[in-house]
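REQUEST ID: PR-0412
SUBMITTED BY: lab tech R.K.
PRIORITY: routine
TASK: structure prediction, single protein chain
INPUT:
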Amino acid sequence: MPEKPYDHNQIELKWHDRWQDATFYRAEEHSTRPKFYVLEMLPYPSGTLHIGHIRVYSIGDALARYKWMRGFNVLHPMGWDAFGLPAENAAIVNQRHPRDWTLQNIAAMKKTHRRFAFSYDWDREISTCEPEYYRWNQWFFLKMLERGLAYRKKALVNWCPKCCTVLANEQVVDGCCWRHEGTPVEQRALEQWFLRITDYADELLRDIARLEGVWPERVLTMQRNWIGRSEGTEVDFHLEGTGEPIRVFTTRVDTIFGATCVILAPEHPLVAQLTDREGQARAKSMVDARAAKDPGDTAKEGFFTGHYAVNPYSGEKTPVWVGDFVLMTYGTGAIMAVPAHDERDFEFCTKYGIPIRPVIRPVDGGLARSDALQGAFTDEGIVENSGEWSGLGSADARRQMTARAETEGFGKDAVTFRIKDWGISRQRYWGTPIPVIHCERCGAVAVPESDLPVVLPLNVHFTGEGRSPLEEVPEFVNVDCPRCGGPARRETDTMDTFVDSSWYFYRYCDPHNAGMPFDPAKIAYWFEIDQYIGGVEHAILHLIYSRFFTKMMRDIGLVKNSEPVRRMFTQGMVIAEGAKMSKSKGNVVGADALADRFGADTARLFVLFAGPPEKEVDWRSEGAEGIYRFLSRVYRFATRNVERARAGSVGAEREASPEISTADRKILRKLHQTIRKVTEDFESRWHFNTSIAGIMELVNDLYADEARLSDVTVAEVLEKLTLLLGPFAPYLAQEIWDELGREGPVFRQVWPLYDPELAKEQEAEIVIQVNGKLRGRMYAPFGTPEDVLEARALEDPKVRVFLEDKQVVKVIVVPDKLVNIVVK
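STATUS: complete
OUTPUT:
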C-alpha cells in the first residue's frame, strides 16, 4: 500500500468527532480491578488554555492511559474552580455578570480539553459555583462551627486595596497580594470568620514524615517552614509600677540573663496603653510600612515606650520597646531581646545603642567581651553570669529554668507555630455565602442544615469598593432569626475560594450525591489519590488547606484516611522563546492555535519530550516542527506497511521458521528494549523525554532495515509501536490502529510486555587470556573499539595478578570475542 501524507487535522478531527459521546473514559463502580486515581489540580476557568496547561494535562493523561492498559480501574476527572475574584473583577470591567463570564470560559476550556483528547470522565465534572457543590462548603462550615473549628473575631487582617478584600496570611507573598505582585498589602481591623487550622498544626507537621519520598522535598520543606513549630518557654516580665505581665516567648530561656530589653509588636494591645497618641500613630505606621516592605529590606525600626519591665529571673529592670520586626502572629507578640545571642536582636540593639551582655560561652572557649562583639554568638554552650544556673550547659539550663517558671507561676513550657488560623471571610460577591445569620438578641446564629444551600443571588450591582455587593440585596440580607424569629441580617461575607478546592477531589468520587458531600464507602475505595499533579506554587495554600480538610473530615467520621494524596508531582514551568509567558510580552502560546497549526499530538509530545517533567522547558516552534516531522515519519511507515503487517499478523511464518534473520533479530531486540525503557519510565522515573527518544530510535532503525524485515516482524513491531505511542499521541495511535484493522480504543488494549532476554543490552562476553590461558571475562557493547577492550583487559584486577613482574609483549584483540595478552 502506498504511504499516506500525515494530515493532522484530518486525522485528529475525525477521531475527535467519533469520541465526543464515547464512554470508555468512565471509571467503573464496584470494580474488581485495582484502582488508580490520577488527578491534575482543579483549573480556574480563565477562558483559554496555553502550552503550560497542556504540559500538566499531558502528563496526567499519559499516566491515565498507561494505567488503563495495565489493567487498572482508572479515575481521571475534571472540574472547575469557578468562584473567585477574577470573575468579579471582569464583571466590573466588562459590565457582565460573573456567572455568565465564568460559564462562557468553562465552555471554551472544555472545548479545548476535548480537542486535545484528554481522557476525562466528564460524567463526574463539577463546578464549584453551582449550588449543588457549594452547599457542601456551607455544610462543612456548620460542622466546624459545631466543633469550635469555625469562629468569628475582630482582628488585624491583610487587605489588598486592588482586590478590595481580605487575604489569608498564606495569600500574602513578599508583602504583596498573591494575585497582584506589585500591590502592597495593608493592615485593617475587621470582624472576620476563621477556621482553626492551628488545632491540626502538630498533626500537619508530624504527618509530613509519611509523605517523604513520595512528595517533592521542596514542597515538604515549604510546608514545614510555613507551619513553623518552635519549642520554648513563655515567661512573664512584669511592668514596673502596675505589675501587669508582658508574656514573651523564647526558644532560648537559657539566655534570659542577657536580655537587655523587651520588644512589643506594633499591634500588641499594650502599645496603646504604654504610648501616647504620637506613639500609637508611630506604631500604626510601622504596621502599614511592614506590609509594603521589600522582603530584602532587613532594616529594623523601633522606639522606646518610656516604660520598664522586670526580668523574673534576675529582678533587673529592662526597657520596653516597640519594634517592627516583632510579629503579633508569632508567639505572644512580645520578645525579650538578647543581642549577644541573637543576630536579629544584635542588629536592633546595636542600631539603638541598647546594651549587649554575653551570658553564653563556647564549650571550649571563654565568654566574649561586650565591647569586642562583632556579631551574636548563637550556638549553645555554657551559661555564665546567670545566677544559680551559671556553669550549666544550655540544654540543662533551659530545663531547670523552665521548671522554675512553672513552679513559681511566672511561665511555662510552650510550643508555638508560625501558621495561624485561616481567615476565610471575603468582602466580595462571587463566592460561597457564609451560612450565618446575625440577630441583635441571639448574636451569630447558624443557618439550619435544612435551609441549605444559602443560594447566592444573581441580582447584584458590582462596585469593587471593598463592601460586599450582597449588602445591597435586601431580599438576601433581611431574614428572620432561626432561633427567636425576630428580624435579623444574613452574613454578607463570602468564603475564600480555597475552601472550594480543599475537598473537591472527594466530590469527584460521588459527584451527584444530593444527600451528603459524598458516600464514605466510595471514598474508602478510591482514596488516597494515587497521583496528584500540579504547580509548586500551591505548596502552601492549596496543599496545606486540603490536608487540613481531610483531617477534619476524618474527625467527623466522613473518611478514614488522614492524608488526601499518596504521591505528589510538581511539573516545571513552560517558557516561550526563552522568557516566561505573559500577555504583556505577547508570547503566550495558546493551545487552540497549537492544535490548528501542529496538531494536539504534536503539542502533547513536545511538552513531554522537551525535558524531564519536573524541569522547566522552553517552547520553540522549531522544536514543535521536529516533533511533527517525527509523527509524519511514523505515519508514513505505518501506512506503506499496513498490508505487510496484516499479512504477517497471522504468525505462521515465525512458527515455521524459528531461525530469524539478522535484521529481524536486531529490530526485535530494539523493540523489546524500547518497551522495557518506556515501561520503567512510567513505573518509576517519569522521564517521558527519554521514553519518546527511545521510540524515535526504534523508528530510525525501522527505516534503516525496512526492506530486510519479514512481514511477521513488521506486524509485531508496528502493533507494539502503536501501543507505545498510545499514551503520548492518542490520535495518531488510534488512526494507525484502525489502519491495521484493529478494533477498540488503543488505550484499552493490553500494554505490551517485553522479553527479558531480548530486552538485554547488546553486550558481548569477551574472554581474557594471558599467554593463551583463560584468566577472566568481561562484557562490553558489541562493536566496542579494540583499544578500549585492550585497556579494560589490562586494568581488570583478576588479570593484573598474572601480569605482576612480567613484561607485556603484545595484546591480541578479536572484537566481541577475546583479548589475549602475551607476556614474558
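NOTES: The chain has a mean pLDDT of 92.
REVIEWED BY: pending
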